[in-house]
């Protein structure tokens, strides 16, 4: 079953084409990598999937429903880490985690405590006083502390140190074990290679390819080579 | 200081549009007042009527000051010193904060300081550009005034201009101190706004309590005016009885403030404030975990700020009532004129009603400020995090709207109550409390009207909503504050919806404007909600 299904999606900002016939299919229970360089349309796609932006044309289904029309009901089933982590400067990390958790319909207390410890995040600091990596952790902990079927993560590890990156990867694998679906937007190819079951590569608003990691491995292909081949002539 | 010149160039580059626009629009509007006022009020008999009116109406003295005589210079001073002063004060504090504290908050300062730059260079550069900005503005003012009106003489005109330059720069220096104290730009700007408001009010109290006298037979402001930069600027009486020495006060204050700012700068860490930022709570309280809780949290300080302002205003007004007879005893001529107008008995309710309307203006400003917070939440991207949860767009916007409207009702009721309470406590005069509470509440549809318009624009033109609403507010405020005193033509006044409301409680409540305002508010809000449902999120 498809959790996210996008067909022939178009989106313009004024005259600028952000998405130009994009397709994406995320299956239940998989970790789906969403790869592409900056400005290719990853965040725009995610915002349309969340019902935050209006599509121009095409078909977008989230859990089989239109996310623009049923945004609120659908949001109970997902947790989101935004690409630009930007929260209220005067609230503490702990307060932000609680707030977002309860707005999603509750968060798991045990899990919250566990994640704060694993990510070594001090919840008493005001958001504005966190460093870049710690700001990222607030968003990641807030999302992972919710028990939902779908996690949409927009470049969640930019700014995390290698140790935290390991912790993050372990948590994502655990979620997959528990049967959750994860859409992971990234431009860190090694991370995608390590985590994902399948990847979709986006280029200038179009789907440039969909690959199964296991298949690539069988054919002794390397994700980096495949990815770069999509952009030949540009570098 | 090493690096100052480079940072000056950086400021000029960043503000290459803003600075000329500010300077030209402020001086342009000021100079434009000369032909406008000359056209309407130049006749000696008109000036004479205005002179009597301003000096006999307590509301007039408190709100705009008094006239030194039935002459054009006095009228022009009255019309400009406070209003342009207010704009220039904010221009200076916002400018200094933008180039000092905001740089640190953004993290740009850290990068700048990693170069060959002295620790004090950023502050020096901001203050130097502020000084130049005020001097250029004053030069344009002086030259323009000399060219447009020949009745004042060069000395007077340049004293007027210099008064504004000193006034503006003293606020820049005060902002320099505040920038050292607070860690967030928002708090620093908030404190600057409080100080400007307090200075504005102190000048009002000083003029209210002042006495006619001295060698010129003009109003001598009482001591509170001397605590206020507005009062210092007024004291030069540049266009009537010019005095240079009051300029020394802002100059001394500026020098002291700059000294304090640099001492504090050397005592603190980069990007930290002298007032420390404490650790907060590890858990969100029950209330903060809900969408209404968050909305109230976000609007809380805006409400508290304006509520304190309104309380300060109404209690000052209440405390001034017993002083009213004393003020008018100081001049037998004034006493005679007041007797002709119906005596103190008729004057007090009129005064209090006028003041209630001024309190309403603070409530209306609160409404716009509070709803701007909703737009700021969208512009900064915070709302994206919320709408990605099970909070709907309609519910999110309704929460902001309802919080604001309830806030406005509470603020009106409390203001009316405290005003009546102060009058009854401080003076021998006695008023009916409920008249004031319900009178104040009868203005609530005005608050709803502005809120409705804001929501409509938020849906349709989110980037422009704040600006348009502040322009509408400016018109409404101007017409109710000095429209009647200046005897502006009725049809111009009538464009402002507030002009159709009764001046409560001295007049009976009129229901037609209440119903009309509520209906327009509801329609506008509905339109706003429909558009907000349909549009993209728009970041700044």
Give Rg of chain A in angstroms.
Answer: 17 Å
Chain pair forming the biggest interface: A-B, 40 and 33 residues
The percentage of residues in β strands of chain B lies in under 5%
Radius of gyration of chain B: 24 Å
Strand content of chain A: 25-35%
| Total beta strands of chain B | 2
Shape of chain B: globular
Q: Order of SSEs of chain B, N→C? A: HHHHHHHHHHHEEHHHHHHHHHHHHH
List the quaternary state of the chains: heterodimer
Specify the structural class of chain B: mainly alpha
Order of strands across the biggest sheet of chain B?
Answer: 1-2
Distance between the termini of chain B: 35 Å
What helical percentage do the residues of chain B reach?
Answer: over 70%
Distance between the termini of chain A: 38 Å
Which key terms come to mind for this protein?
heterodimer, A: 235 residues, alpha/beta, 6-stranded mixed β-sheet, 3-stranded antiparallel β-sheet, 9 strands, 36% helix, 27% strand, globular, B: 540 residues, mainly alpha, two-stranded antiparallel ribbon, 1% strand
Secondary structure blueprint with pairings:
The complex is a heterodimer of chains A (235) and B (540).
Chain A: E1 2-13, E2 16-27, E3 31-35, H1 42-49, E4 57-62, H2 71-75, E5 78-81, H3 93-103, H4 109-118, H5 132-144, E6 150-154, H6 162-177, E7 181-186, H7 189-195, E8 198-203, E9 206-212, H8 213-218, H9 223-230
Helix pairs in contact in A: 3-5
Chain B: H1 4-14, H2 18-41, H3 44-56, H4 58-64, H5 72-80, H6 83-99, H7 101-106, H8 108-113, H9 121-148, H10 154-181, H11 185-209, E1 211-213, E2 218-220, H12 229-235, H13 248-267, H14 291-320, H15 323-329, H16 332-341, H17 343-379, H18 382-387, H19 393-426, H20 433-441, H21 444-460, H22 465-481, H23 490-494, H24 511-534
Antiparallel strand pairs in B: 1-2
Helix pairs in contact in B: 1-9, 2-5, 2-9, 3-4, 4-11, 6-9, 6-10, 6-11, 9-10, 10-11, 10-12, 10-13, 11-14, 14-17, 14-19, 16-17, 17-19, 17-21, 17-22, 19-20, 19-21, 21-22, 21-24
């Amino acid at each position: 079953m498809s959790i996210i299904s996008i067909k022939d999606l178009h989106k313009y900002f004024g005259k600028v084409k952000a998405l130009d016939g994009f397709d994406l299919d995320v299956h239940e229970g998989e970790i789906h990598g969403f790869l592409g360089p900056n400005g290719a349309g990853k965040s725009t796609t995610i915002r349309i999937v969340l019902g935050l932006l209006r599509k121009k044309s095409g078909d977008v289904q989230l859990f089989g429903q239109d996310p623009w029309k049923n945004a609120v009901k659908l949001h109970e089933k997902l947790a989101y880490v935004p690409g630009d982590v930007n929260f209220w400067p005067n609230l503490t990390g702990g307060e932000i985690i609680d707030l977002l958790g309860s707005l999603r319909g509750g968060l798991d207390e045990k899990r919250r405590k566990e994640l704060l410890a694993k990510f070594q995040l001090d919840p008493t600091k005001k958001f504005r006083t966190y460093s870049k990596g710690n700001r990222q952790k607030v968003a990641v902990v807030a999302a992972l502390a919710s028990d939902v079927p779908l996690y949409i993560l927009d470049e969640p590890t930019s700014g995390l140190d290698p140790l935290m990156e390991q912790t993050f990867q372990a948590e994502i694998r655990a979620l997959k074990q528990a049967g959750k679906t994860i859409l992971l937007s990234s431009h860190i190819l090694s991370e995608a290679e390590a985590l994902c079951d399948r990847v979709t590569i986006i280029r200038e608003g179009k789907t440039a390819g969909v690959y199964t990691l296991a298949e690539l491995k069988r054919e002794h292909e390397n994700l980096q080579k495949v990815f770069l081949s999509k952009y030949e002539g540009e570098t | 200081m090493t690096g100052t010149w480079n940072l000056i160039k950086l400021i000029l580059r960043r503000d290459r549009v803003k600075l000329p626009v500010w300077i030209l629009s402020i001086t342009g509007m000021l100079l434009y007042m000369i032909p406008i006022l000359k056209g309407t009020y130049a006749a000696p008999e008109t000036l004479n009527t205005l002179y009597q009116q301003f000096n006999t109406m307590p509301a007039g003295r408190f709100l705009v000051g008094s006239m030194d005589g039935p002459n054009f210079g006095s009228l022009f001073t009255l019309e400009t010193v406070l209003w342009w002063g207010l704009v220039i004060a904010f221009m200076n504090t916002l400018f200094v904060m933008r180039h000092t504290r905001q740089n640190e908050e953004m993290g740009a300062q850290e990068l700048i300081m990693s170069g060959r730059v002295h620790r004090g260079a950023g502050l020096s550069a901001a203050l130097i550009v502020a000084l130049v900005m005020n001097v250029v503005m004053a030069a344009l003012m002086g030259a323009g005034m000399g060219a447009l009106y020949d009745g004042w003489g060069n000395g007077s005109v340049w004293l007027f201009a210099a008064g504004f330059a000193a006034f503006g720069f003293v606020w820049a220096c005060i902002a320099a101190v505040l920038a050292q104290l607070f860690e967030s730009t928002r708090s620093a700007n908030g404190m600057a706004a409080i100080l400007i408001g307090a200075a504005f009010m102190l000048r009002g109290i000083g003029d209210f309590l002042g006495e006619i006298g001295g060698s010129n037979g003009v109003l001598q402001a009482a001591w509170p005016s001397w605590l206020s930069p507005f009062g210092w600027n007024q004291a030069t009486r540049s266009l009537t009885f010019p005095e240079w020495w009051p300029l020394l006060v802002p100059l001394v204050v500026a020098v002291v403030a700059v000294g304090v700012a640099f001492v504090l700068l050397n005592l603190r860490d980069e990007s930290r404030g002298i007032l420390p930022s404490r650790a907060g709570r590890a858990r969100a309280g029950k209330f903060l975990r809900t969408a209404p809780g968050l909305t109230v949290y976000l609007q809380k300080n805006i409400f508290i700020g304006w509520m304190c302002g309104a309380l300060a205003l109404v209690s000052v007004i209440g405390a001034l009532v017993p002083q009213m007879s004393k003020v008018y005893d100081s001049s037998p001529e004034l006493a005679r004129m007041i007797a002709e107008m119906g005596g103190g008995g008729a004057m007090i309710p009129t005064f209090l009603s006028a003041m209630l309307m001024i309190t309403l203006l603070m409530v209306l400003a609160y409404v716009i400020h509070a709803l701007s917070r909703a737009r700021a939440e969208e512009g900064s991207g915070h709302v994206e995090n919320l709408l990605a949860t099970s909070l709907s767009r309609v519910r999110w916007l309704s929460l902001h709207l309802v919080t604001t409207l309830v806030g406005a009702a509470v603020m009106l009721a409390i203001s009316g109550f405290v005003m009546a309470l102060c009058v009854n406590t401080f003076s021998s005069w006695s008023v009916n409390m409920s008249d004031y509470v319900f009178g104040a509440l009868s203005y609530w549809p005005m608050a709803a009207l502005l809120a409705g318009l804001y929501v409509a624009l938020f849906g349709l033109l989110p980037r422009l909503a704040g600006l348009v609403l502040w322009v509408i507010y400016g018109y409404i405020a101007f017409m109710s504050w000095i429209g009647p005193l200046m005897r502006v033509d009725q049809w111009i006044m009538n464009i402002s919806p507030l002009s159709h409301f009764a001046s409560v409680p001295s007049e009976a409540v009129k229901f037609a404007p209440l119903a009309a305002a509520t209906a327009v508010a509801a329609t506008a809000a509905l339109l706003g909600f429909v558009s907000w449902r349909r549009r993209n999120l728009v970041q700044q």
